[in-house]
VanZ family protein (Glutamicibacter ardleyensis), 363 residues
Amino acid sequence: MFWPATIAMLGGVLFLGAAGIFLLAIQYHRHGRLSWRRTLTTGAAVIYGFGLFSYTMLPLPETRDAFCRPGVAVPQLQPLNFLNDFALSYELGMRHFLTSFTLWQVLFNVILFMPLGILAVRWLRGNVFLGTLIGLTASLAIELTQYTGIWGLYTCAYRVADVDDLLLNTFGALLGSMVAYLPIFAWLTGPREQSAMKSGPRKVTRLRRFMANGFDIAFVLGLVMLTTFVLEIAEKLGAPQASYNLTQRWIPTISVLLVFLLPTLMPGRASLGQRCAWIRVAGHGTRPAPAWQAVARSILGLGGISFAFQIADSIWAASPWAWLSALVLGYLLLSSIFLLCDPAGRGIAGRLTGTRFVDRRIH
């Protein structure tokens, strides 16, 4: 009972650590601001999703054919069969019934899906019908996955597909959808806000700029890691090994171009992270800066610094210009200090290029 919960917590925390910044970027782009309630509910939903997986799918068999034996994982297709098990257990006495695995398995199947109904009502702003329907759909998907051995990944089913589980899980989602209206679960509902596009412009603060920088760095690192992972999978499937120049130079370079420079050239004059934070580069007044100014700011700012760090190992380690590493670090430190001390908050790149950041919703 506790081992799957440990796996769920560990998996949820690791996932949030790796993908949390992307979830925040999506939230900010959608609502124009971050909400602690929305963030906590998203984290709870992620951990709960890992919990559903760990309790219904783990542990996985060691081999594809490990459970291919007669009488193993036979589907249970008789509805309400657990009532017969209740009767047999009760014949041995009330104490035996209350402590029996049969009773607690039924209760756990109900309890396991109650959070799904609560999240459907509070997080998705649904109702009792939607919460019950989501519970039914999720439970049916789980039972079919168990019945098919994770859709053919394993030769035989390794867990029992039980129609009673489907009924009890759905009832748990129904019960959760009903209790979700209690005030104790109000914190799970994020504030009602119109879409960020329809909201009025707000001042571009230093915190907002640092948050946009964090989104950009995450996008670059995520793109590099994803591309490298795909190449490794392709290599294991028989594709030629990726060259050093491709993995250490071209992939980082293209990632920086896709996140920083190309979006800056497009209408909107902003990197991907800046677009998530509703920021754009402006020239005189609030008009979008010319392309050359926006690109120059990106090169002198985080875009150029990110490019230098991404290809650091492939260039600095193999060249006589190792002092470039110290130079970039020094420029990064100087830029950060200047941004914090500059009364206008424009930073070195903004001063050198004659640009500044404004809210994208300013016309």
Summary: The first strand starts at residue 279 and ends at 282. The mean pLDDT is 88.
